[in-house]
């Protein structure tokens, strides 16, 4: 295959590029920062990777490079939980996904020949937050800011179907691997100061990095997959369970809670991503025949942390 990827230098994207190249595919990396992309994917190690500069949300010559690709994976978007949600920050979070996806779909629509599939990221934030509800792919959307972002993001992706292109939307849970959210949680445990964040009762719907990469590749190659799939492991846990399991695997105490106000002081409204969760089950994902390497948190954390 030849696959175009936005967000390719990120946590999930960089692992996906490596896997696709290792399996003999060609990859077109669309990057805002080509110098950084060349450092992440040096030509000696990544001979099958072509790097093209682009500005997300802006039409341009980069759109012409989509022609001849077999598939497109759209992972680009501003980080959600990195800084406070000022009105400007919220607008950037929304626009990077909504308008960015709009321009990717525009490129696919005018491509000749067209890719056969668009795999578009979304997030389990679509469902809103709850300590009591269980969400599956057909559950209704929530009402908060992140739910609205996901709705508008997915609505733009849906338009690719007008061009006769197969669409797979993957609603990402929290991806566990070296780096990402887990990377930020490891340090307190190493310092013997680890513990649950907030109440500890919030749900934590997660997926191992290798599993999400495998799921994206299945979505690219399995022609009967279309529509929405939850990219989460089948066994979500509460935050307290996550903390206890991390403590066991790292042989560290896990009783020192991180108070909600500490996170809120740093992230403002962005703290909602960690302080309020949702229990999300991958019903359609499992029905598609997808096989998880790491269905349980213990095995996932053991592989990552050891």
Brief descriptors of the model:
two-stranded parallel sheet; 306 residues; seven-stranded parallel sheet; single chain; alpha/beta
- Helix content range: 25-40%
| Strand arrangement in the largest pleated sheet | 3-2-1-4-5-7-11
Q: Biggest β-sheet, characterized?
A: 7 strands, parallel
- Total of helices: 11
Global structural class: alpha/beta
Description:
The protein contains eleven helices and 13 strands. The strands form four sheets. The chain has a seven-stranded parallel sheet with strand order 3-2-1-4-5-7-11, sandwiched between helices. Strands 6-13 form a two-stranded parallel sheet. The two termini are 34 Å apart. The model has no long low-confidence stretch (mean pLDDT 94). Strand 1 (2-6), helix 1 and strand 2 (26-31) form a beta-alpha-beta unit. It is α/β, with parallel strands linked by helices. The protein is globular.
Topology of helices and strands:
Elements: E1 2-6, H1 11-22, E2 26-31, H2 34-40, E3 49-53, E4 71-74, H3 87-110, E5 117-123, E6 134-135, H4 145-158, E7 166-172, E8 174-176, H5 180-190, E9 203-204, E10 206-208, H6 209-221, E11 227-231, E12 237-238, H7 239-250, H8 260-267, H9 272-275, E13 279-280, H10 283-287, H11 297-305
Parallel strand pairs: 1-2, 1-4, 2-3, 4-5, 5-7, 6-13, 7-11, 8-10
Antiparallel strand pairs: 9-12
Helix pairs in contact: 1-6, 3-4, 7-11
């Amino acid at each position: 295959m030849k696959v175009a990827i936005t967000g390719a230098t990120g946590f999930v994207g960089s692992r996906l590029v490596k896997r696709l190249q290792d399996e003999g595919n060609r990859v077109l990396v669309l990057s805002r920062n080509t110098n950084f992309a060349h450092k992440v994917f040096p030509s000696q190690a990544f001979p099958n990777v072509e790097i093209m500069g682009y500005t997300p949300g802006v039409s341009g010559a980069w759109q012409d490079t989509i022609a001849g690709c077999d598939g497109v994976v759209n992972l680009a978007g501003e980080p959600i939980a990195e800084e406070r949600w000022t009105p400007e920050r919220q607008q950037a979070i929304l626009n990077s996904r909504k308008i960015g996806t709009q321009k990717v779909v525009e490129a696919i629509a005018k491509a000749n020949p067209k890719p056969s599939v668009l795999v578009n990221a979304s997030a389990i934030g679509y469902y809103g937050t709850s300590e009591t509800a269980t969400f599956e792919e057909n559950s209704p959307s929530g009402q908060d800011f992140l739910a609205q972002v996901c709705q508008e993001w997915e609505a733009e992706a849906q338009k690719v179907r007008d061009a006769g292109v197969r669409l797979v939307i993957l609603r990402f849970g929290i991806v566990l691997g070296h780096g990402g959210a887990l990377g930020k949680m490891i340090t307190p445990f190493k310092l013997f100061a680890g513990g649950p964040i907030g109440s500890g009762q919030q749900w934590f719907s997660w997926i191992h990095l290798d599993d999400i990469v495998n799921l994206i590749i299945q979505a690219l190659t399995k022609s009967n997959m279309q529509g929405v799939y939850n990219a989460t492991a089948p066994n979500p846990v509460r935050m307290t369970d996550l903390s206890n399991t991390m403590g066991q695997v790292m042989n560290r105490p896990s009783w020192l809670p991180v108070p909600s106000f500490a996170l809120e002081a740093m992230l403002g409204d962005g703290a909602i991503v960690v302080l309020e969760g949702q229990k999300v089950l991958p019903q359609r994902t499992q029905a598609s025949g997808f096989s998880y390497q790491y269905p349980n948190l213990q095995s996932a954390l053991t592989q990552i942390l050891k």
